[in-house]
Specification:
Helix content is 64%, strand content 0%. The protein is an all-alpha fold. The chain has one domain. The longest helix has 40 residues, at 118-157. The relative contact order is 0.14.
């Protein structure tokens, strides 16, 4: 392992501080306080809610793992602790600028759907609103300063929230 590489514990801490807090710890606390229950699998509606929630959670988890691996291998950084050294322009980042948030949204929505909890739907809506404000106000100005023209080109071609159908092909300079 080189000095430039982040240690595995920094990745673990980053995942625990951000995605796990937003998708596991806070929803679990909300569910406990509001007495949210698992779906009733003896009904068709319960099965449908559980299945739809499981699909959303699985999609979210796979995207989250993919983006964390890209941050490590391509960006040479971690999530919350230490920004990437290089701008990540591969995989889902060629379709949408915030696939990691898409992953978190899928997991949160999957949990709300699976339990049909209005409280967890509320948490999902609150988190989406806060993220929709924070990304353009905090994250994007930081990325502009850090990566300059490379980020500006990326920003012009790749949408923030709604994925492109075709992947963006950065110029060879990127």
């Amino acid at each position: 392992m080189t000095e430039q590489r982040r240690l595995w514990w920094r990745h673990l801490l980053s995942v625990l501080l951000a995605p796990a807090m937003m998708t596991v710890f806070i929803p679990s606390a909300i569910a406990a306080v509001t007495d949210t229950r698992a779906p009733d699998l003896s009904t068709a509606g319960g099965w449908l809610a559980a299945a739809a929630g499981a699909v959303l959670i699985a999609i979210g988890l796979s995207f989250l793992v993919w983006t964390v691996v890209l941050f490590d291998r391509v960006g040479e950084g971690t999530l919350a602790i230490g920004s990437p050294v290089h701008l990540v322009l591969r995989g889902p980042y060629r379709h949408v600028r915030n696939p990691m948030m898409t992953a978190v949204f899928c997991i949160q929505l999957g949990t709300a759907v699976a339990t049909m909890s209005p409280w967890l739907f509320g948490w999902f809506a609150l988190f989406c609103t806060a993220t929709a404000i924070a990304i353009p106000v905090v994250e994007e100005p930081h990325l502009r300063r850090r990566f300059g023209a490379e980020y500006e080109a990326y920003r012009r071609h790749v949408p923030r929230w709604i994925p492109r159908v075709t992947p963006w092909e950065p110029s060879p300079a990127h």
